[in-house]
Amino acid sequence: MNFVVKQMVGSQFKEMTDGLGGGENAEQPQGEDPEVVAARKEQEERRKEKHRKMEVEREKMRTDIRSKYNITKKEDGPQFDIGADGRIGAARKKTPEELAAEMEPDDSIIGQLGLTEHVEKAKTAANSAFDTIKGFLPFGK
């Protein structure tokens, strides 16, 4: 019981003292030598400068490769096709007119040769065979 009270009151007391400005400075904790802090900042600046130089060298190498192989640099990010319903990359739903146009017999070579019925029979046979095989396999259920 005593432990629970200490946990509850202790955390509230700590929050209250931090809000009053009694908290430690995040930049320089108590007991840390200012020279150590300055050395750490200097080391961080050197590291950032080193990484900046490396990135400049990489960009130079990238431009050389682009010029050698005639590659254009993409300035924009990836372009996504935003559908009518607001989803990115979503397939556009077909209108009833477009669906009706698909269902109408077309003037394709199969239609001109009169093989439409045979193709439809082959499609149904293939689909039924696929469904039968799918029924036997465990992942098709």
From TrEMBL:
Residues 38-77 have a biased composition (Basic and acidic residues). The keyword Metal-binding does not apply. This is Putative complexin-1. Transmembrane segments: none annotated. It comes from Panagrolaimus superbus. Keywords: Coiled coil, Exocytosis, Neurotransmitter transport, Transport. GO terms for biological process: regulation of neurotransmitter secretion; synaptic vesicle exocytosis. The keyword Acyltransferase does not apply. Belongs to the complexin/synaphin family.
